[in-house]
Write a structure and sequence with these properties.
The chain is an alpha+beta fold. 22% of the residues lie in helices and 33% in strands.
């Protein structure tokens, strides 16, 4: 059965602060965007302002599934973003619908 996970990814050593965020999206596909649009695997996502971190809310069966699917993202293989935490998350307020 699928459940929700909160995932924190942080900037890796290949990240260059001087390079605009949008410039990183050109030249190769962002698998995370595809997982969000086409599969509903990534439910929500975005940078945590004032930090080097990104928060993703993901629907998956296990933390290992989260890690393996995000490993497909070129941003991971290029060491732009690394997973620092995967935690089961229970939605108590609001709705994802």
């Amino acid at each position: 059965m699928q459940q929700l996970f909160a995932v924190i990814r942080t900037r890796g050593p290949a990240w260059q602060d001087s390079r605009p965020w949008r410039a990183r999206l050109t030249g190769y596909p962002c698998v995370v965007h595809e997982l969000a649009r086409e599969e509903g695997f990534v439910i929500l996502g975005g940078p945590l302002d004032g930090t080097p971190d990104v928060l993703l809310v993901i629907r998956a069966r296990t933390p290992d599934e989260v890690r393996s699917r995000l490993a497909e993202d070129p941003w991971a293989s290029k060491d732009l973003l690394r997973i620092t935490r995967v935690a089961p998350w229970t939605l108590r307020l609001g709705s994802l619908e």
